[in-house]
Amino acid sequence: MNSFAFQNPTKIIFGQGTVRQLGKEAAAYGNKALLVYGGGSIKKTGLYDQVLSQLKEHGIEAFELAGIEPNPRLSTVHKGIDICRKNGIGFVLAVGGGSVLDASKAIALGVPYEGDVWDFYEHKATAKDALPLGTVLTLSATGSEMNSASVITNWEQNRKLGYLSVHAFPRFSILDPTLTYTVPKDQTAYGAVDMMTHVFEQYFNHTPDTPLQERLCESILKTIVENAKLAQEKPDDYAARANLMLCGTYALNGGMISVGMDQDWASHDIEHELSAIYDIAHGAGLSIVYPNWMKYVYRERIERFVQFAVRVWDIDPSGKSDEDVALEGIQATRDFFRSLGAPSTLAEVGIGEDRIEEMAAKAVGFGPLGHFKKLEQADVAAIYRLSL
Questions:
Q1: What's the domain range around 371?
Q2: Which residue, among 347, 355, 303, has the nearest Cα to 329 in the 3D structure?
Q3: pTM exceeds 0.85, yes or no
Q4: Quick check: keyword Oxidoreductase in the entry (predicted)?
């Protein structure tokens, strides 16, 4: 196990009806808030009215930035920064899923910065401050409600880049599982894929002597497998939605399940190039890429893939070679994603091979990807081709 330091300052407020605590929490950060949300589903569900009522009750004036894209655009982030600066806004409130939360983090980081917030994502500058951020989560997926990461798309450059800053942790996040009842089947699927791959990125490593962390990862994976289909079949199943929501939060919150372990993240970088160019859902891209990354790298530490197959997918290793067991586990992963309705090939989302080399070159623009197996441009291109 590696040495580590772990700290997470986000306050999690979990359970049915917790939106009623929003106003009290937000009031600690001033009397002007930028309310950030997506395509308007929060208005259809009544959440929008609840949020405005809470803010008004506690004397907070709300300014709005609607229309955050599924792959949030830098141009939209710029709009939010301008609204905050022109109106002296000191608090950002994100109401939505991971895309809304990511855009809100970028806005919060960008307001006190004199340059372009994109500098952070291109590693040209380091954030020194940010506006305080609160969130109300409506989609179980990214873990953005309890981590310091955000991913933004520069559509003009076809670049999708992530940035981590200690200043981007939400001050509080309200997690009410009932707010996810209206999430459709496909988004439930993509959320489950996203949170599972977050765990995979931490689980597949070469760090020795980490039995606790490995079992934490495995328990989250099994809980997602047990609850994702239930949530699809019965959207208002509180237990299923609550378990998925907590899994998403625990899967990626700065290291709670993986302290002391190396991490990979190559597959996320590979997928980012797909959604930066083709604007596909992040979870859809991961459901295509990740099983093929597995197939490309599993021999680097086959015993971890055997353990994964046995512990997560309950595959009986009796009389089988390690190779066969590992491959069964990879196939079980692919089959589960398919069973949720997520795609397994690039062809299914209308992507061919014409821009593979371009995407592979961009993916390694900051250097080789990953830790489990260092991937150069040729490796990334090979994974794209396995995904066709």
A1: 183-386
A2: 303
A3: yes
A4: yes
